[in-house]
Amino acid sequence: MLFNSFEYLMFLPIVFLLYWLVFKPLRWQNLFVVAASYLFYGWWDWRFLILIAITTLCSFASGPLLEKLEGQRMKQKWVSAANIVLNLLILCYFKYCNFFGENFAAVLRSFGMQADWVTLDILLPVGISFYTFQALNYTIDVYRHKIEPTHDVVSFFAFISFFPQLVAGPIERATNLLPQFLSRRTFSYGKAVDGMRQIVWGLFKKVVVADNCATAVNQIFDEYQTLDGFNLLLGAFFFTFQIYGDFSGYSDIAIGTAKLFGINLMRNFNFPYFSRDIAEFWRRWHISLTTWFRDYIYIPLGGSREGKWKSFRNTLVIFLVSGFWHGANWTFVCWGAYHALLFLPLLLRGKNRRYRDIVAAGKLLPSLKETGQMLLTFLLAVIGWIIFRADTIHQAWEYIMLMFTKFRFCPPEYGKKALIYILILQSVEWLQRDKQFALQMDGKGISRLPVVRWTIYLSLVLMIVLFGASQAEFIYFQF
Question: Is 326 a catalytic residue?
Answer without folding.
Answer: yes
